[in-house]
Amino acid sequence: MQDDKPSYDAVDDDEAIEIEFVETDDDEGGAAGETSEVPEGLKGEGDDALRRENERLRAELDQLRDHYLRKLAEFDNFRKRTEREREEFQRTAGEKVVRELVPVLDNFERALTHAGESDSESFRQGVDMIARQLWEVLERQGLEVVDPTGKPFEPEYHEAVQRVEDPGHEPGTVVWVLAKGYLFGGRLLRPAMVGVAVEPIGPRTDPRGDEGNGST
Fold first, then answer.
1. Which of 189, 148, 139, 144 is nearest to 172 (CA)?
2. What burial class does residue 101 get, using C-beta atoms within 10 Å of its C-beta: 0-12 exposed, 13-18 middle, 19+ buried?
3. Which CATH fold would you assign to the domain 42-141?
4. Distance between CA atoms of 180 and 197, rounded to whole angstroms?
5. Rounded to whole angstroms, how far apart are CA atoms 174 and 147?
6. Which CATH code, of 3.40.50.150, 2.60.40.2470, 3.30.70.20, 2.30.22.10, is assigned to 142-201?
7. Distance between CA atoms of 97 and 140, rounded to whole angstroms?
8. pLDDT (tens digit, 9 = 90+) per residue, 79-109?
9. CA torsion sign, 182 to 187 to 188 to 189?
10. What is d(CA 138, CA 3) in angstroms, rounded to the nearest whole number?
11. In sequence order, which ranges of 114-165 are alpha helices (DSSP H)?
């Protein structure tokens, strides 16, 4: 049986087929597309836009810095002006109080000058008048007295300096006032120092009874 397969041995070397791979235009276009750069015209336009944006941001930053410095100077001037006004207010407020106290000092001097020329009752009345005058001055400035005699003890306004066993008062009641308290402008200036009633403690008894006396 004859073999139908073609024989390659019969082909001469001179007739050998040469295969040449030739790059097509499509391949060249693809390679060029992958490695292409931004055209010079577009590149220049991008640089100009970036430079303009940079200049705009710098101008905006300078404007904000100038605005900040102006506000800082305004705040410093406001702080100094407020401090001067506060000091002036304190000075004038103190001057007003001192001006109202000067007549009180005059009356004290008069009372002391004529103390030897008047009897004790007249002197007492004079001092009492001066005390009332002084209190009126302080009251106009906002001073209020705290006198809790016979009232319930309030730790916010009173300071207990003594416990008083007094069956005539309810426990927790102010029996006497050692020093009055004062409010100034509605705020506590000094608490009243008081004695507070407590429940009396009964006499102690010896739990041993008659055995405690040593008798037999």
1. 148
2. middle
3. Hemagglutinin Ectodomain; Chain B (3.90.20)
4. 17
5. 10
6. 2.30.22.10
7. 9
8. 999 999 998 888 887 888 889 999 999 998 9
9. negative
10. 142
11. 120-140
